[in-house]
Design goal:
With 152 residues, the protein is mainly alpha-helical.
């Protein structure tokens, strides 16, 4: 009985912490996307003259980054298409870190933020959704996972 109580409490703590990490990622990236939207002309100017995003024209990069920052973290918080959403957000963060490193505003503290966020996101790319996710709920409902559990 005590063992079961401790393990169930531990699971609650692990899944609660996981949810806090997902909410933190939502806060960071969603706020960044909202900031871009609030001053769209400034965003376009930054992408045109300051950020050197490889392979994409500045206007498309601005739209893609803003959409990614607003949509992908919501999917991660909900636990919906977690791995693809996390992979997209990881790539967005890596490109942003690269572009940031090419600016005059580069500093080590800012880069460490990107490393921290990238590490957090990478957990979801590698391990997938937690049991507190729509992915897990849908997998159980439609038995898409067979006998495999989607927990980590």
């Amino acid at each position: 009985m005590i063992k079961k109580f401790l393990f169930s409490r531990n699971d609650i703590m692990i899944h609660g912490f996981d949810l806090l990490v997902r909410l933190y990622l939502l806060k960071v990236f969603f706020q960044s996307g909202m900031t871009k939207l609030q001053s769209w002309q400034s965003t376009l100017d930054l992408f045109a003259y300051e950020y050197s995003v490889p392979l994409l024209p500045p206007e498309i990069a601005a739209y893609a980054a803003t959409a990614g920052e607003l949509i992908l973290p919501v999917f991660i918080v909900l636990g919906l298409m977690t791995r693809p959403a996390a992979l997209g957000l990881f790539i967005l963060n890596a490109v942003a870190a690269f572009a940031y490193s090419q600016t005059d505003y580069y500093n080590m503290v800012g880069m460490m933020d990107h490393v921290l966020w990238g590490s957090m996101i990478l957990v979801y790319v590698l391990y997938g959704p937690s049991p507190l996710s729509l992915d897990n709920l849908l997998a159980r409902k439609f038995m898409l996972s067979g006998n495999r559990q989607t927990e980590y």
